[in-house]
Amino acid sequence: MRIGLIGLAAGALALAACSAEGEKVASAGTPATANKNPYPSTYSPYPGEPTALIGATIFDGEGQLTENGTLLFANGDVVAVGGPDLAIPAGYTRIDGTGKFVTPGIIDAHSHLGDYASPGVEANSDGNEATAPTTPEVWAEHSVWPQDPGFSRALANGGVTSLQILPGSANLMGGRSATLKNVPSRTVQGMKFPGAPYGFKMACGENPKRVYGSRGQMPSTRMGNFAVDRANWIEAQDYAAGDHSSRDLGLETLEGVLDGEILVHNHCYRADEMALVIDMAKEFGYKVTAFHHAVESYKIADLLRENDICSAVWADWYGFKMEAYDAIPENAALLAKEGACVIIHSDDQDGIQRLNQAAAKAQAAGRRIGIEIPDAEVIRWLTYNPARSMGIEDQTGSLKPGKMADIVLWNGDPLSVYSRPEKVWIDGALLYDALDPKRRPVSDFELGQPGEGDVK
Amino acid sequence: MIARRLLTAISAACVTFSLPVTAAAQDLVITNARLVIGDGSAPIDQGTVVIHNGRISAAGAGAAAPQGYPVLDAEGRWVTPGLVASLTDLGLWDVGAVDGSNDVSAGEAAFSAALDIAPAINPASEHIAISRAGGVTRASVAPSASSGLFAGQGALIDLGQDPDAVMQPRAFQYVELGEWGANLAGGSRAAAYTLLRTLLTEAEKGDAARQFEGNGTHISRADIVALAPVAAGEQPLYVHVERAADIRSVLALKSEFPALDLVLVGAAEGWMVAPDIAAADVPVIALALSDLPVSFEQLAATQSNIGRMVDAGVQVALGLYAGMNQPRWAGEQAGNLVALEKMPGASGLSWDEAFAAISSVPAAIAGMDGKMGVLKPGAFGDVVIWDGDPLELGSVPVKVFVDGVDEPLDNHQTRLRDRYRSLEDGGLPPAHDW
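YS: structure for the whole thing
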């Protein structure tokens, strides 16, 4: 039972009680040992060949730029990045990158592909378990439809090689995220990023209070948002200190957050609310890894830097809801100027195809007010920084020897509107090639239908 | 349905121009421009633009600078006509999700086709100011259908700061004939077409004595009266459909109602029937970058849609800048279509075609050929000087003229930017900095 909710709202209680029934999967009295990885990744890299990209401009994802560079990868891993004098071992396929650019695979820390799949019909709407204001027990991976055509667009047009699928923001606690490699697969397990930690979606602000307030239940206000959150954390602390004699899916997740095993990704627009969430995290001893949609981060960039919290932002979305009315295009640049962590995210099946373009716009907005951010730093916003927020920065997100060969070869400067991915490798396997129609993934849904296999 | 899912500009700081700020149209010569006429012709270096009495009086490489006009040296910058954004919701909302501020749709209204959006348009909207600072100087504004098959009558506006935004009220009628239209008409496309035919026939006869009720449809006498100019071909009928089959059905209406002045809106699968659209001489206003089967009426969506239609001879404007799709993104979306030209198998637009698709082409579709979206003698004095290639990411205007008036480019966003540019303790709270 979610006891912490009882004293707060009768409405919440009813729903909490309902959901609690299904959560008890171990018999009372027996110490329950939860398998922390019950739906393990079955992904293993697809075949690739040792490859040398020669003569391109290489951004390594951690702020380094190499002109006329050479990138070597083999057996799924980056082997070396160097200049024109880097020796190319025998047996490597050579690809001329002259006039082209190389980046690490693009990473989106905020996607709903698969859980709000195309076609966007009600039957495919699996992103918000909007039946109770807190549903820490749900896992996004159980909603992901691997046949969402959006994955292939993100790959081909956006160069996206890894992404985090988050539950929606109807709920204060929306559930666990799924971190995926952007590879076509029959199953979600075949996409799961090996060894990635879970993320946990939280939301503050307008959405939870609107969704539940409109039903006459808690929360209907921002203070209600916090009260419900705090009650859940109190319960989680009690559970963590207890004997674990019975399992509770939701509390297992919250305990994982308190233990630092599960990373918090908190949808939050307004600066003042982010500041309150930071204190709530301190009150209960957890850490917010990133604020998402953080359109007002520029107002508290110092606070975010001091607390080592990333801001996952759009370039210039504006005004669509009250808490987005103070969004400004200089948000990312002002954060960077203060030394705070910037992530460019999409939250959108179209935007994920152009994260590089969003980053370029955010960079230009800074330049106009005298904030010069080098291109190589801007590339970090959509590679290493999102990888770090997802806890996979030791495996991907930059082109360091030994890391996954998740690589995009762009036909021009990725910070220009006139450039597109030409080739995309995931773990060294060529999964998209603009020059080869058969290296263009076509989902089951698209087979035999108008537009099958077309350029998109 | 039209995307209901729901920059800007900065300028003064890095510009050395020193024109006197005035709210009045002024005669002006802009020299040394990388000049884009907007009609699909190639940019001209060392171009000159002359504005006289709020209109373009000359533009080109050899345009003579009249004696006594103030001269603005563009220093080689891109100089273009103001962008024309087709099918926006500019001036109809402040915050999309705040209903009280949002006049886009009227689901509870007693009228549909009779709705005239013009008096709802707020020239002081932040979105107009922000779009102006993004180089957009003219737009069509359309309501969204929710009380019936017809959305109502859209307007043409300019984005100048003055309160006189509406150039032409009741510029077009808007109807939904795809999935959303089926829904509005009672549940099927058959119902939508039956309703449309019935109403057009009634309107042709001038018989406004009847009204129709039932299954979510509500047609008042005023709606039938409002459709008379549509039936007579005096007011264009904008038809939103996406599916190839639906496009064919719309084109077939011309045989039954030959007077109809049709414009296709959406047309995500237009490339599949492009020769038919071209043969019918019906223009298209399309989203630039749809490439997902977001519904069963857009299974064949591709970013090559517009390029393929243009290649087939269809007149296509980029548009549908409503909800989350901001008018100031027109340039970069056009730039994306240029990028497709380098992709094997894809069809995009040349740079010159792409710019025309956000300037002269939407102007022509709006019935303003030669009046807006081009720098030609007699056109409105809408001129934008850019800090870079106007189709490139992050390029913004450094100067925007509307009807020859040097327009302000500041807005809520620029004021917030300036307030929070530095977080250093200035003694008093930020609220005292304004």
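YS: worth flagging: The longest strand of chain B covers residues 166-176.
IM: good catch. Also The longest helix of chain B spans residues 189-205.
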